[in-house]
Automatic annotation (TrEMBL):
Similarity comment: family membership: Belongs to the CobB/CobQ family. CobQ subfamily.
InterPro entries, alphabetized: Class_I_gatase-like, CobQ/CobB/MinD/ParA_Nub-bd_dom, CobQ_GATase1, CobQ_N, CobQ_synth, GATase_3, P-loop_NTPase
The organism of origin for this protein: Vagococcus carniphilus
Alphabetized CDD domains for the sequence: CobQ_N (cd05389), GATase1_CobQ (cd01750)
Segments forming domain CobB/CobQ-like glutamine amidotransferase: 253-440
Its biological purpose: Catalyzes amidations at positions B, D, E, and G on adenosylcobyrinic A,C-diamide. NH(2) groups are provided by glutamine, and one molecule of ATP is hydrogenolyzed for each amidation.
One Pfam family recorded for the sequence: CbiA
Segments forming domain CobQ/CobB/MinD/ParA nucleotide binding: 5-227
Pathway the protein takes part in: Cofactor biosynthesis; adenosylcobalamin biosynthesis
Name the UniProt record assigns to this protein: Cobyric acid synthase
Keywords for the protein's UniProt record, in alphabetical order: Cobalamin biosynthesis, Glutamine amidotransferase
Biological process (GO), any one: cobalamin biosynthetic process
GO molecular-function terms, A-Z: ABC-type vitamin B12 transporter activity; catalytic activity
Recorded superkingdom: Bacteria
């Protein structure tokens, strides 16, 4: 049997992903071979592995915390919403189909055996698997075909720890209600409860903790204080917490347009490491203002977002900024939006067939039915650039300088071009997600912006983003060790093998 522990939540966004990452870090620090696992994930933020497979970003940062290279087996099913009714279904890193909720619900039973096989493969290679649930296990209307919560716990024969978010209120009701709605066999799997995001004096919680233990006959394993950990969020729900205002104490105002179908907004997290950057997001109803840099992120539906920019008035604001000489940088869908026209002859994204872009780069994009997924390395002038590509479109340049020369794709040597840069060097477009994670390229670009603003360049190269993330994982692990009964958690993990 595989040693395991499964973290389920009373609701979405209660901290399951962060808790899994923290436990992975603790087990890794303690010398164990550990991996994260989430059978089904729904997110627009995804990542491409070294083998060219697509997976959710939560399992990426969890695998980093575990000291492992991201492996698509850690996230067998990824659902990427393409509209309010349909999602792209990705299994084991490759696109299967687009399905609505009913179609997918009917399809799920066919996935159970395949998920079990991938889970067992990982189990044979590691000491412990830390499993993450999705949403709540008490979705009683969906439980008959569940593969994400108690359905996954059955597949893995895993013990469950339930985490609840006290910050949103009603924590004891959510714990009790969730456990009471479970079937007896499911209830028996719940070996502990964790209360997350607590602010204040823990002593005030003691009567409630004692009462909930008596009511549920499940021990509380710890109360985790609200922590400020700079760990990547995978879901656009996290955008509700991002900054929307320029910090006047910083020299560079960098604004991100929050598209209606925004994806991979984590591309810009590394910019916050720079001492001169104030990173903010522009939402519907906000005014872009006069940033030094405007960033246009990826999109799950570029044609719809082209219409969104036009109808919201943001397109005109962006064009005015271009006239003022503002630096504008688009990644993936953002790059496509900067072009002159977008064609969709196979109606991959839209029934309209085509739409106009912002016209800030002399390029055209045609949507294709095959998705490009690749991890790449290349050169931008003398600087190395790295990143990963996830896109359905093919972009044609019309006599404009490319952004980069790509030399490696999925560990194989290649010789091709990526992206485009305007003649005056003020508008950039690239397909490379994560391009700003490279500290040398990031600082070189920002120094160009500083020079344009009449500021002296900063010559100090900031810490590499991967090193910064490693520090955050250690900080998270320290917090969990202080807050949780790790001896009891190890007992639960060890019992999982015995059972």
């Amino acid at each position: 049997m595989v040693k395991s522990i499964m973290i389920q939540g009373t609701a979405s966004d209660v901290g399951k992903s962060i808790l899994v990452a923290g436990l992975c870090r603790i087990f890794y620090q303690d010398g164990l071979e550990v991996v994260p696992f989430k059978s089904q994930n729904m997110a627009l933020n995804s990542y491409i592995t070294l083998t060219g497979h697509e997976m959710g970003r939560a399992q990426v940062f969890q695998s980093e915390a575990a000291g492992k290279e991201p492996d698509v087996r850690m996230n067998p099913v990824l659902l990427k919403p393409t509209s309010d009714r349909k999602s792209q279904v990705i299994f084991n890193g490759k696109v299967l189909d687009n399905m609505d909720a009913v179609e997918y619900h009917e399809f799920k039973p066919t996935l159970s055996g395949k998920i079990s096989e991938l889970y067992q493969e990982l189990g044979a290679e590691n000491d412990v698997i830390v499993i993450e649930g999705a949403g709540s296990p008490a979705e009683i209307n969906l439980n008959s075909r569940d593969i994400a919560n108690m359905g996954m716990a059955r597949i893995a024969d895993a013990p469950v720890v339930l985490v609840a978010d006290i910050d949103r209120g009603g924590v004891f009701a959510s714990i009790y209600g969730t456990i009471e709605l479970l079937e007896p066999e499911e209830r028996a799997r719940v070996k502990g409860v964790i209360i997350n995001k607590f602010r204040g004096d823990k002593a005030l919680l003691t009567p409630g903790l004692e009462m909930i233990e008596k009511l549920t006959n499940v021990p509380v394993l710890g109360v985790i204080p609200y922590g400020d950990f700079k760990i990547e969020d995978e879901d656009s729900v996290a955008l509700k917490n991002v900054n929307r205002h320029y910090d006047n104490n910083k020299e560079l105002d960098v604004a991100v347009v929050s598209l209606s179908k925004i994806s991979n907004f984590t591309d810009f997290n590394s910019l916050e490491l720079e001492p001169d950057v104030s990173l903010r997001y522009v939402f519907p109803g906000d005014v872009i203002g006069n940033p030094d840099v405007l960033l246009i992120p990826g999109s799950k539906n570029t044609l719809e977002d082209s219409l969104y920019l036009e109808e919201s008035g943001l397109a005109n604001e962006i064009k005015l900024l271009r006239q003022k000489g503002t630096y504008i940088f688009g990644i993936c869908g953002g790059y496509q939006l900067l072009g002159e026209e977008l064609f969709d002859p196979n109606q991959v994204e839209s029934s309209t067939g085509s739409t106009k872009g912002l016209g800030l780069l002399p390029v055209e994009t045609t949507m294709l039915e095959t998705k490009v997924t690749a991890q790449v390395k290349g050169k931008r002038d003398v600087l190395e650039v790295t990143g990963y590509e996830i896109h359905m479109g093919e972009t044609t340049l019309k006599g404009v300088e490319p952004f980069a020369h790509i030399t490696t794709e999925n560990n194989k040597e290649v010789d091709r071009l990526d992206g485009a840069v305007s003649e005056d060097g003020k508008v950039y477009g690239t397909y490379l997600h994560g391009v700003f994670d490279g500290s040398e390229f990031r600082r070189d670009f920002l120094n160009k912006v500083r020079k344009n603003k009449g500021l002296e360049p900063l010559n100090h190269i900031t810490q590499e983003y991967k090193d910064f993330k490693a520090e955050q994982y250690d900080k998270l692990a320290d917090s969990l060790r202080e807050s949780l009964d790790m001896e009891k958690i190890y007992e639960i993990v060890n019992q999982s093998e015995e059972e």
